[in-house]
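Hello,

Following up on my earlier ticket. Below are the two sequence lines again, exactly as submitted.
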Amino acid sequence: MTYSKRKVIGVLGGCGPYAGLQLVKNIFDQTIAGTDQEHLPVYLSSVPGDIADRTAYLLNPETENPAYSIAALLSKLEDAGAEVAGIACNTSHAPAIYEVICSELERKGSSIKLLHIVDETIRFLKEISPLVTRVGILCSDGTYRTKLYENQLMDAGYDVIRPPEDFQHMYIHQCVYDEQYGIKAQSSPVSSWAKDRISKAAAYFEENSAGALILGCTEFSLAVNTHTLNSMQVVDSVKVLARALIRETAPSRLRPLPGTGKLQQNSPGQVYSEIIN
Amino acid sequence: MTYSKRKVIGVLGGCGPYAGLQLVKNIFDQTIAGTDQEHLPVYLSSVPGDIADRTAYLLNPETENPAYSIAALLSKLEDAGAEVAGIACNTSHAPAIYEVICSELERKGSSIKLLHIVDETIRFLKEISPLVTRVGILCSDGTYRTKLYENQLMDAGYDVIRPPEDFQHMYIHQCVYDEQYGIKAQSSPVSSWAKDRISKAAAYFEENSAGALILGCTEFSLAVNTHTLNSMQVVDSVKVLARALIRETAPSRLRPLPGTGKLQQNSPGQVYSEIIN
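Thanks for your patience. The regenerated structure is below:
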């Protein structure tokens, strides 16, 4: 068959399971393909029972670092043939986890190309909305406390709106983690309780003059699938990572963003008016 | 971690890509889990470029039999640790393909337990609707011509409604395969063109007194997500296969069917009033 020599994309899912699926679906959605055979080769590993909670580790580093099992699962994807990989979990990109994943992979002699969801998201934000300077983030408490997006955004020259800790916990983190109504417990469909909280959080960032809202926890992608929210540009880290994985393996098959006619993201200076839903 | 010794489910996707995702999503949806870690381990292989079109092969056996690449990809899933597997494609279960898959696996010394989507679907139909005797099938032309469901259903004592060949092709097969509007070309969302044809096909089976309608091509599951269609019980082969994969690996985690309070399917004589959506 024609495509069997294509680079295989590895998706490390399982944290959470639906976020892994969401990343794979975004890869398919953003691939130019008219037949089954034209779609790109993807392996998904979803072994959630092996991966300790990322936020729990960041909040209490005495617990198990999920980096070791994530690195082991990435190695398995590489053994199966994956050459480029993405982790469908923002929190796992916090330095305390991500750096250990990378050093573990190096120790194992891995040559898989692992993309970084935060690097890709900020690069995409710059290109899609070059005039935006003030940004809000929907993320877990782990990402909030470690300032994963915040530090990198500030390094890139952005003003970052940091909500008070109780608001962050009650109206943002709990949208994902509430044991009864959170997106991890109910994602198909997402509960109206979680949707209401996301609306409140979005209103908070808009009142604080955010020009863009980053979906910085993969679960939020399951609840927000518009390209703008009120007056804010939405940048969905899962969609961005999916596009980056296609760019690294089959750039000519990357579906153009609506309204641009452009096949490539990452061409500096272009203003994209929409994100693919 | 607690669950790392669980049996791993292998999903052979890629034929088509969204059908593979749909099977994985159905596994997650039908698993009792309140946290990420409680979900079952699943590997998805989606390498569509390697798998020749199944229907094309059944209609013209001089072309490449997709069985060899499917068996090779199943072996890779087994190498990665999968012990039980399902193929997210009904047409691949036609004897001309499925028997070659099985003999290839045997030749390779495989011990993976491969479930058969048609066997599982008919078993489920009997249990959920024990009074139904007359059945319609939404399937590809390949499945129609090889009478994949039809022969097994007749062996099990059912009357099977066989639409005329031109109706089958225009109103059923093309829902999936039309190059512009078919579900393989547009599945996220499914086109209204495809939905309209499915409605017409459903009306045909109902007029012919079908008590149940089998979704016998995985793509139809992307378009029909109700448990009844008009007066017919809908039996979605993808949902059934997902439940069977959970049953084989972690039966205590199988979500009960709505209205039954029962954890297990396949307990003879029970009447289930609904299929999980």
